[in-house]
Amino acid sequence: MSKWQSQPLRKFYGILVMTLQYFIPLLVMLVSYTSMFFTIMRRKSANNQNEERDNRIKKNIIKTLALVSLAFIICVSPNQIFYFLSNIGVDVGSYSSTELDITVYMMFSNCMVNPICYALQYEQFREQAKVLFCRKGIVNKDECKRKDNNACSSKISSDSSVTITALST
Fold first, then answer.
1. Are 81 and 102 members of one domain?
2. In this predicted structure, what is the pLDDT of residue 48?
């Protein structure tokens, strides 16, 4: 643990770091996703035939936003709480503890969780990832030779434009 000459400065630093690294990103996420939510909910279908599809798209987008937000909170909170408590003077143990290491790994894992959230929610994302992995030689060549890989590129562009349109209008 670092030694501080001034406890009020230490507490101020703890609050500042927690605000800059946790609360502001969380607030930006909350405001952005709330704005997207209301924009999506206001959007009307062009005709009744598309209403069911549009409602399914809306539901999927909202679930994805919720998943990404929840993942951020779960992955980042333990580390931020550890450092916040440490910075305001609470004895949380050693900086070389296994618990701290776990919180750091959880925080870094947030970077890889978003693609997993998208893969869980969008078949198009999974298909396009497969195409990318085939091109890079990461996926088994036999799997890449299946016919549905060629159709997936054109399907991706047409389906994703629907999703993007739902977000932007």
1. yes
2. 67
